[in-house]
Amino acid sequence: MVALTQGARAWQPWAGVTASCAAPTVGQSQIGDILLVTVRDNNIDQALKFLKKKMQREGIFREMKLRSAYEKPSERKVREKAEAIRRARKVARKTAIRDGLIAAPKPKTPAPGQRTPAFAQR
C-alpha cells in the first residue's frame, strides 16, 4: 500500500478500513499492517533509523528470526513457557519495586563524553 505524506500529516487511503481487517489483539500485528515513516528533507538515513526502531518495537526482527527455520511444536511450547515465566517475573519485580519491597535499580550513568538520554533528564 502507498501512503502519501506531507510534513507531519499523512494521507492514508486505507483509513476507512472496517474492523474485520483490524489486528486481533492489542500488541499483535497482522500481515498487511502498515509501518508509516515520513521522510523529511530527503534525509533517508534518519528515516531508515526511525524505521528500524519501529520494526524493533513491533517485534518484526524477532519474528523474522523465528520464522527463518522450522520450529518443532515441542520447542515452541518450551520457548513460549519460558517467555511467559520471564514476563511474570518482570511484572512481579516491578510491583515489588512499586510497593517498596525491593530497592529500585540504580540508574545507569552514561560513559564519559556521551550525553544523557532525554527520558533520564528529569
Description:
This protein is mainly alpha-helical and 122 residues long. The chain folds into two domains: 1-69, no CATH class; 71-102. 41% of the residues lie in helices and 5% in strands. The chain has three helices and two strands. It has helices spanning 44-58, 60-67, 73-99; strands at residues 4-6, 9-11. A two-stranded antiparallel ribbon has the order 1-2. A hairpin with a 2-residue loop joins strand 1 and strand 2. The longest helix has 27 residues, at 73-99. The chain starts with a strand and ends in a 23-residue tail after the last helix. 0% of the residues are buried.
Give the total of beta strands. Answer: 2
What would you call the structural class? mainly alpha
Number of helical stretches of at least 4 residues: 3
Widest β-sheet, arrangement of strands: 1-2
Task: Note the beta-strand portion.
Answer: under 5%
Distance between the termini: 40 Å
Q: Helix share of residues? A: 40-55%
Order of helices and strands: EEHHH
* Average pLDDT metric: 77
Spans where pLDDT lies below 50 across 5 or more residues: 13-27
The biggest beta sheet, please?
2 strands, antiparallel
**How many discrete structural domains?**
2
- What general outline do the C-alpha atoms trace? flat
User: Over the alpha carbons, how many angstroms does the gyration radius reach?
Assistant: 20 Å
